[in-house]
Amino acid sequence: MQTNTPPRSAIRLTRRGRLVLIATGAAVAGTAVAVPLLTLGGEEKAEPTTLVIPEGWRAGQIYEAVDKALSLPPGTARKSLPKAGLKLPADAEGNPEGYLFPATYPLTDRSTPEQMLSYMVDTANKKFNGAPIAAGAQRNAMNVYQAVTIASLVQAEANTKADMGKVARVIFNRLERGMPLQMDSTINYALGRATLSTSLADTRLDSPYNSYQRMGLPPTPIDNPGEDAMRAAISPTPGDWLYFVTVKPGDTRFTADYAEHQRNVAEFNAQQKKGAQHKR
After folding, report:
1. How far apart are CA 120 and CA 173, in angstroms?
2. Which H or E run includes 243?
3. What are the φ/ψ torsions at residue 184 (nearest 5 degrees)?
4. How does DSSP assign 245-271, residue by residue?
5. Are 166 and 248 in contact (CB under 8 A)?
6. If residue 170 lies in a helix (H) or strand (E), which one and from where to where?
7. pLDDT tens track of the chain, all 280 residues?
8. Which residues is 22 bridged to in the sheet?
9. Are 13 and 186 in contact (CB under 8 A)?
10. Is the CB of residue 158 less than 8 Å from the CB of residue 164?
């Protein structure tokens, strides 16, 4: 088992990646907000009655969804934050990222952005501040906000629900060893994008969210995690893994050995090359 950190320029910790240019696992839903509509008279559609927030959406996406659901000008929900009176933990410093809980929320003709965002934060507090989340965070020597931050990384990086506990364990193992997390999803968050390529220049980005350059957790969550990711964050799967890569869908490989990780990455590259040739 290799416990030393290889040269920083060589490491790529990601669920999808190449040795030089790495695909990222940012969890950004590619579909529109699922807003059920009621049909009246077979032709006219009533106003939406619910707003569905998927797991892993970033705050920016949620603000846009609220504006659309309430037929408000773009930017309205974001501008409403100062007067929304959100009950956020002190560590959040007013930033609701991580606390806009993914769920289905009712809409009425009197719904406002402030009400919708407060509802999401209140739901998150109910989920996070009671047992088992708060107790699990304490058991792992962290506070709830740190647990939510880890869960947001898990949500972004895990390829499947089954992988979430292992991804969480990689995060804990790296933190305990004083290794940088080196996760591309944090860079994507800093750049406000969702891409499958992260360049060497990207890893040199001057940002507190650059987990290649900065030690420890990012300063805030990077998305809004669901319950599965939260459970993984407080109860990671036992293991000694330090690296992971998704060679192909459904085949994420975890290892503590850097040489083995390099072989897995090489296999991923071969799969990508094969796929590119088939598209020609």
Report:
1. 32
2. strand 243-248
3. -65, -25
4. EEEETTEEEEES-HHHHHHHHHHHHHH
5. no
6. helix 164-176
7. 333 444 443 344 544 332 322 333 333 333 334 444 333 444 455 667 999 999 999 999 999 999 999 999 999 999 999 999 999 999 999 999 999 999 999 999 999 999 999 999 999 999 999 889 999 999 999 999 999 999 999 999 998 999 999 999 999 999 999 999 999 899 999 999 987 667 889 999 999 999 999 999 999 999 999 999 999 999 999 999 999 988 888 899 999 999 999 999 899 888 878 766 666 6
8. 198
9. no
10. yes
Structure tokens at 52: 């569905």
Structure tokens at 26: 């940012």
Q: Where are the beta strands (DSSP E) in 19-170?
A: 39-40, 44-45, 50-52, 104-106
Q: What token pair was written down for 93?
A: 């410093």
For residue 231 the two structure tokens come to 């459970």
CA separation for the pair 89, 98 (Å, rounded): 11
The domain spans of the chain are 39-128, 143-279
